[in-house]
């Protein structure tokens, strides 16, 4: 703190326009400000090097006149008014002019000003200017609130270097490394301008190349060795985006989870090859609670277990919440071949589809189906088939849609697509089983009941396509069928013509194009 008499003298000097020997032309309009060269040179390393005895004028278009005026006043008076409207340009100017004392004052303000809501707005600046103190403080705030911040759309506006700082952090409060994988993949998609799913195959290939290139900028920071086996199953069908070193990691999983020594030598080679990246580093600082969450059975919770059992049993008496899926898209892969291998020739199928919005749609197919030619378009009918809604945006709402008539097409098969219910695909799984198509009311009638506004929108066709998060298929009478088959094998010599299981009859094939 300067003595009072010196403070008074500097205040008078600030107002003394006659002795000011430097004109500063600031901003695009070159607003003129005046100051003393010796004051600026004393307070700033930048001006100390820039200004000479012959210098009479200084120009700077990148800074606002109001900010420069505040800095000049600070040089003379020793204080400055910092608020949310000027803190960013003040920090930028303090760094540019090498005013370390002012930089620390502004950073003190930032430490109180930065919050969960605005930390991503300023993180690019901190990284670009290499302000380690602000970066560390921001990373700590992001780590403590990872669940909220990593789902904020602002994260897709970060510079690549800024995102790398975040995903390299050892203190992120995440439940699984899978969170980082999805963040990086979505960031790469956004950077490539992929707002909606692309339907043309050539466009998909072109876009995949761009996404893969963008993804590779971050892939070395994803600690894939920390994934559980079922988590790896969730991402392996994105192999088209994965660079070579992630494909090598397949061998790591085979070794890790099959408990086999088959790849032991190769694993050591992979570790050596990629020893400078993060795959085999220590785990992030998962808290005790998060480690417990990773081990809980809820990580493998089925979609059926979240439904109201009594409600579904009114429609399907065989239903119970402890049934196990015979097909899961996350487990078995989002592809048509896996779905067919698991589901055809199995009667009493319950289909449950969850979207990224939190909706759950379902369908029940009473009879079994068989696809002999996977390249053909085949339509079937099952009078007992129906579709339903169980949840809308994570809120329970049960709505059943029965067939318009018994002769309408209830189920269809198209190559490279999942199950399609109804002649007009009232509910259909499209585009390599990642897009859900909704056109309810064509083959399945809309019920005349009171429903929410969101349900009205769905049934009226407002949401024509939604992104699928998971699809599971259950056989509700699998155990009974196995027992019945055993009995039939024992008695087939005596009663070859007896078969009392109408539900296991295959659906009639209507046509094959």
UniProtKB/TrEMBL annotation:
Domain (BTB) ranges: 20-84
SUPFAM superfamilies documented for this protein: POZ domain (SSF54695)
Comp. bias (Low complexity): 478-501
Region (Disordered): 478-513
InterPro entries, per the entry: BACK, BTB-POZ/Galectin-3-binding, BTB/POZ_dom, SKP1/BTB/POZ_sf, TLDc_dom
Residue spans of biased composition, Polar residues class: 502-513
Protein name as it appears in the record: Pep-cterm sorting domain-containing protein
Organism in which the protein naturally occurs: Anaeramoeba ignava
Organism placement in taxonomy: Eukaryota, Metamonada, Anaeramoebidae, Anaeramoeba
